[in-house]
Design brief:
79 residues; elongated
């Protein structure tokens, strides 16, 4: 998937919407990651929302069908 995500101009930061389908750490330090893990663990509504959002993203945005469609559209522009 990484090659397709690169070719379709999708980075990990673009795949995760903070608080919608996951959490984005302010930086990649152990403390920042721990803060976000604790935040998710302590907030049942956030966990439910992110779980539902992640399922939706996986099915409609990050599936091979969706990636293939974006790749095909980009290839058509090149040709």
């Amino acid at each position: 998937m990484k090659i397709f995500s690169y070719l379709c101009n999708m980075t990990l930061a673009e795949q995760v919407s903070n608080g919608v389908n996951g959490l984005v750490c302010r930086d990649a330090t152990p403390c920042a990651i721990a803060d976000e893990v604790i935040r998710m663990a302590c907030d049942e509504k956030l966990r439910a929302a992110c779980s539902e959002g992640a399922s939706h993203s996986a099915e409609f945005e990050l599936s091979w069908t969706a990636i293939g469609r974006r790749f095909h559209e980009m290839a058509e522009e090149v040709v």
